Structures are given as structure tokens and as C-alpha cells.
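User: We ran a pulldown and think these components assemble together. Before we commit to crystallization trials, I'd like a predicted model of the whole complex to look at. Sequences follow.
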Amino acid sequence: MSTEMKMVIDGAEVSFQEGETVLEVARRQGSFVPTLCYDERLDPYGSCRLCVVEVEGRRLPASSCTLKAEAGMDIRTGSDHIRKMQSTLVEMVLSENPGDECPRCRDIGTCEVHELAEEFEVSRDRFLGAISNASKDDSNPFLLRDYDRCISCYRCVRICDEVEADHAITMTGRGWNKGIATAFDA
Amino acid sequence: MIQAARESMHFLAEESCGKCFPCRIGTTRMTEILDELNSGEPVREGLLQEIEDLEEVLAETSACGLGLAAPYITRMLKKYWPQQIQDKIDGSGQALKEGSE
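Assistant: Here's a predicted model for the assembly, 287 residues in total across the polymer chains.
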């Protein structure tokens, strides 16, 4: 049996198992760490950057989902500075897609972006500009691929790869022109 | 210099891979904001605050050096050529609402 390891999260000493990430330990300990690209079934990806935490001894915040817990680490999850950057990030995500989608989406089910917007008390009114990937692929009479609600967390691609092992969906494009496509359509 | 800053930011936006949110959205929004400053049209209220918030997120949460480097462009612009930004804002008839620290 490996020896029990300890780290500090928000001032409280917590034990963890080898291989756990800082995000997993922090959430188990009860700290609020928002995420949009994280899924516990998937490997850490680190694209939404919402899970950033302050690590004692490091100059820049680190994304906790991709940070392996180490003995003696001292982590702060909810400083005003971190919360402000998370709030800005949620506003940036909201700005990427058309504004008229929110009411329609709410009828379908819970929306993590919407929940975070409420948590941080922000709405889609800053950083407005071009809409990313607004074009709808409506060429199939039975299927509509509606990217107006896509925040490019790539969870669909990763679920298809890592869980389903189908590798049928892929990422395409780069930067602002990123998108989701079927395999070999990149 | 604002045009030069815009071209540099546009370069980073073009080269951004698009994986991490702060860089993908931040470099694009920064390019648009610099375009807005350059346009001669009245700039929207809170523009300087938007620049500052984007700089913060880019500088501290980006996954790689490309996003981390982006805020240097606007920070240097504000540090060494503040008058040029001020002139654009004044020229557009919009009073400077908040100062850049």
C-alpha cells in the first residue's frame, strides 16, 4: 500500500491518492471549481481554462484538471483574482455564439454554460463581435448540425474516441474557424 | 502604432490553434477591438475595461506561449503610445470613461 499523501487546498489539509488531479481532490474537499471541458469519463484536456487555481510557488495559475496532485502542494481555488478571470472567461464563451439561443436551449435541459453565467452573474453583453462557426450544416434532410450552441469543448469528439472508441467525429479548422466534423472531413 | 498592434494581434489570432478558450476568443476579440479603435467610429463604452480583462485572462490562463504573449501587444501599446489610444477615443467623440492602470 502506498503511503497516504497530503496537500493543502484552501487552507485545509486533505489526503489524496497517487494519480489524482488537483481538480478531483479540490472538488472532493468541497471547493467550487468551475469547468466546461471536463468530463470525469475522459482524460483531462485543459481547454476551457475555467478550472485555474493558484499554486503556491508558481508564478501563473494552473489548470487544475491537468495538474497532478503532489504531496505538499498548497492550492487556492477561489481568490477574488481567480473568480474575476473565471467570470471574464464565461463572458467570453457567451460572446462566441448568437444571443438568441439561450431561451430556446433552456427548454431542452440544463446547460452548464447557463449555470455558470448565473453563478457568476454575467450575461452576454461584453466582448461582443463576430460569431464563431455560425454556419449551420443543413444539407441532410433528416439531421441538423446546429453549431450555434457549440462552445468547442470537444467533449463530443473525445467521448467518441475515448469512451465509444468509434473515432467518428473529429476537430477541423484552426483558431476562430475551428469546428466539428465527421472523420476524414477535416 | 494601433494599426501595427492590430496586425500583430491578427497574426496571433490566425495562428491560434483554437483549443484553449482564452486564446481562441481573446486574440479574436482583441483584433476586433483594435479594429474598432482604428475605425474612426465612436467606440463602445467600456472598451478599455474589456481590453484589460482580456489581457488578464490571456496572460494568466492561456495554455501556451502564444496566448500568453498576446497581451504584451496591447500592454506595450498602452505603455508607450497612450496618446494614440487617447486620440482615437477623443477623435471619436467618446470621453475616456475609465483609465488604464
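Chain A touches chain B through 31 residues (CB under 8 Å). That may be worth checking against your pulldown data before setting up trials.

User: Thanks, that helps.
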